[in-house]
Structure formats: C-alpha cells, structure tokens
Design a protein that fits this description.
The chain is of the alpha+beta class and about 150 residues long. About 40% of the residues lie in helices and about 45% in strands.
C-alpha cells in the first residue's frame, strides 16, 4: 500500500513538472511571437530604440541577397532613410525553444525601398534568439526571398 502511494506521488510529480515545462515553453513561444510582431511595427515606425534593445550587440542579419549586416549597419540604414519600410507584416511564425535559446521561423511581406529602388516582396526568415539577463535578444536573422509567381 505504501509503495503504491509513493509510485502515485512520483507519477503526479513527474506529470506536474511536464505540464509546468510545457506551459513555460508555450509562454516563451507567445512572448517571442509578440516580439517578432513588435519588431515589424518598430521597423515601419523607425523605433530605433526598440530595435536596439531586441537586437544583441553581435546581431548579424544575412539578407536575401547574401549580404551580412551588423546591428550598427542595419540601424544606420533605417535611420538615414536609405532603407524605407512602408509596411511590414509577419505571419506563419513558429517558435522552437531550447532552454535559453529559441529559433523563430516565419514569413514577412513588405513594401520597401532601398536606395530608392523598390524591393517589396515576401521572404521566409529564421531568427535566432538568446535569453540574456532575463530578456530575449535576437542574435541572428537569415532571410530567403520567396519567388514571385
């Protein structure tokens, strides 16, 4: 009887820990989806302070043309108006959490000019997030252009 009670207690504890872990993972997923959407809004609004906060100092963006941009280069391009994003929408965002790291994938659709040239379209993206000092920062982004049909 005593061993049955212990076995049931252990099973309940293990099940409870599994539920807690699942709930925490879902919470992180939702938090990162919100950050992805806020990122899109910040780019359109040129909210450079917000972007500076969510991009790690060692952030690297690999653009769909293969060029790699640092955090400083990306912020400077937005600030100067060289890169003008009139609208940016993300969808189909999925997040996988690995402890204090996470990977977000999704699709971006945007109306944008770069150096006066229309570069509007759609891309698939992969963002790598790391939790540092209790907050999430993006350390890397990679984009691949979706071919127009």
């Amino acid at each position: 009887m005593k061993s049955t009670a212990i076995a049931v207690s252990v099973a309940v504890l293990v099940f409870g820990v599994a539920i807690l872990a699942q709930t925490q993972t879902e919470s992180v997923e939702q938090e990162l989806i919100k950050l992805e959407n806020a990122w899109a809004d910040a780019v359109v609004k040129k909210d450079l302070a917000f972007l500076e906060g969510i991009w790690a100092d060692d952030y690297a963006w690999t653009a769909s043309d293969g060029n790699v941009w640092s955090k400083a280069q990306t912020l400077a391009s937005l600030k100067s108006g060289e890169d003008a994003v009139l609208s940016l929408r993300t969808d189909d965002v999925k997040v996988r959490v690995y402890g204090d790291a996470a990977v977000a994938t999704g699709r971006s659709t945007f109306n944008e000019t770069f150096k006066g040239k229309d570069v509007s379209g759609s891309e698939r993206f992969t963002d790598t997030w790391v939790r540092r000092s209790g907050r999430w920062q993006c350390v890397a982004m990679h984009c691949s252009r979706i071919a127009q049909k």
